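Chapter summary example: a protein plus acetyl coenzyme *A.
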Amino acid sequence: MNQSEKFIGILGIGTYVPEKIMTNLDFEKIVDTSDEWITTRTGIKERRIASAEEATSDLATKAALKALENAKTSPDEIDLIIVNTATPDMLFPSSACLVQENIKAKNAAAFDLSAGCTGFVYGLVTGVQFIKTGLYKKVLVIGADALSKIVDFTDRNTCVLFGDGAGAVVLGETEQGYGILGADLNSDGSGGEYLKIAGGGSRNPATIETLNNKLHYLYMNGPEVFKFAVKAMGDTSLRALKKSNLTVNDVSWFIPHQANTRIISAAAKRLKIPMEQVVINLDKYGNTSAATIPLALEEALNDGKIKNDDILVFVGFGAGLTWGACVVKWRSLC
Ligand code: ACO
């Protein structure tokens, strides 16, 4: 280990989910579905839904304030805010700038990062680079999404899958040997068609026709995404472990993007990681896109599962297509 090498870790974490709970039984009343189908095909039992007044930056702000408190860091100390989201409040200004104003991080630069459900992993890796180069000391990385605002609640293929939430971490220099040890990021734009919102951007600006054709809603080819995800999660986890000079046998906890328990268990099987070492909480929140990994991480911490020196693998996949993994050697917060 190079003694002058900087190690960058998570100094604090905070999450937020909206109060309103929507159960599978609630969906039975609005689309042709059943609790049995949703539970067996996805593992989801309920999800949180933002109120009409709540946008992504509101969820992100609440998570960010908790992360700052947890990291004993004042907003002034934050040099950069990265909001990873597929559901920004608006095309511009960025949701990161809205959070910057809300938390009064007056010294921070701010930008949004678009990598779909891989957003949190992309954001972590991006934040780490700014600290490694010495440009910044503390970076706030937030995964926040309000997918309920972009799903078609008459389309049973998608509406039952998603929920709203946010998770934030403060990144900074940590003890030698701890923090983010290695990472692997990927993209394949040829799969962009499988997961998209086609309307409202510069390709199909919003018109009455785009609205009538429902182009402002999320479109997903579920089976294609499923096939891609199982292979992608395994491959990228192995590459990230290799870059960290570790193997699957060193992994204490696998913390995957929470989209579908069948995808997670198939990926864990490919990696030969027992399900007892996999963190799953999508039964309570559904797929909250960029928020799933920090929500699962915080829950595992609160449950006392994660101990000092544990090796964690965060792994995600999503729109783009994008996928990636990050290996972290855990050291207890503050
Ligand atoms: N209730 C009842 N039946 C349903 C529902 C529902 N909610 N949704 C679909 N079905 C039906 C379909 O219409 C189909 O019926 P048919 O055979 O009569 O045509 C049948 O169930 C099977 O449909 P499939 O799509 O083949 O079902 P599958 O087993 O693939 O499960 C699912 C669908 C859950 C969407 C799965 O494909 C999946 O999880 N895909 C990945 C989704 C994902 O990970 N998305 C990540 C998004 S990441 C981001 O960046 C936003």
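Key point: The mean pLDDT is 96.
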